[in-house]
Amino acid sequence: MDKRIALFFDIDGTLLDNKTKSILPLTQYILEELNKKTNYDLYLSTGRSLATLGKIAPYKKYFKGMNLSNGQEIYIGEKAYFGTPIAKQTIKKLLMRAEVEMVSIGLILKNEIVMNFFTNESHFNFIHYVQAKVTNLNHKPFDFTKDVLQVWLFASNEIIQTYREVFPNLDFIDWGGYGADVLPHGASKANGIQKIANLIGYEKANMYAFGDGDNDAPMFEVVGTSVAMGNGSILAKKKATMITDESSNDGLYKAIMQLKLLD
Fold first, then answer.
1. What does DSSP assign to residue 89?
2. pLDDT band for position 119 (50/70/90)?
């Protein structure tokens, strides 16, 4: 019997073309064809939460499971597994600092996205990229009985660095030139993949990961084959076993074909 093969796909800049923010025809083709392989299991592996899948939601049918919120939300079939929430005192301190400095942050809960307030930049991101229903506190108090799995910090890299220094118990994963995912120390896509591998029984040699960002670098280290997109970050490319073309130039399709996953 063929051993099961697990393929983990990042969304933004990988499944979604980094220029048009859409699924290209050849990307849809490989999802359809890979899904037909009886010994292949496909997974989403992203910093996005269940509530923020946006344009990718119609393609969920191709995936056995999802490694979301950088490993803080895992779904396999109908079963859900959640990581450790960020400490409530830390969230209070984070919100207080953000309010004083007028920094927009998104709080990622199990079934909800909460913004402390919108700035032009964060509003643009939600309208054009995230496309999710959001509870806008508009400077009103947050309900601290709710658990926060992840935070999105909408700020320049310079501002993010100041938060990194003040909150050593949190990990800040830069999006690039602007913004960051904020997680409990040690949380990552890699943790989520390892949990899935333990639950299902995948062998490392039969696990593949495709991504483009700094948050993909940890998952590249726990799979047998890792592919960084041509539009990927320096860190992602450094940690990958293979670099393909940009997502806008059908890099994902080219990687799948080069790896002979559809032969």
1. H
2. confident
Residue 29: what are its φ and ψ, rounded to 5°? -60, -50
What digits encode the pLDDT tens for the residues 206-248? 999 999 999 999 999 999 999 999 999 999 999 999 999 999 9
pTM equals 0.93
Give 152's strand partners: 106, 181
Angle (CA) 163 54 227, round 5°: 70
Tokens, residue 240:
């990958």
When the candidates are 3.50.50.60, 3.40.50.2300, 2.60.120.10, 3.30.1240.10, the CATH number that belongs to 88-184 is 3.30.1240.10
Where do the CATH 3.30.1240.10 domains begin and end in the chain?
88-184
Secondary structure element (H or E) that encloses residue 9, with its range:
strand 5-9
pLDDT at 131: 65
Class of domain 5-82+187-258: alpha beta
198 contacts: CB under 8 Å, gap ≥ 6: none
Alpha-carbon distance of 135 to 52, in angstroms, equals 13
Residue 8 backbone class (left: φ over 0; alpha: ψ -120 to 50; beta: rest): beta
**Neighbouring C-beta atoms of residue 93, cutoff 10 Å:** 13
Residue 182 predicted with pLDDT over 90: yes
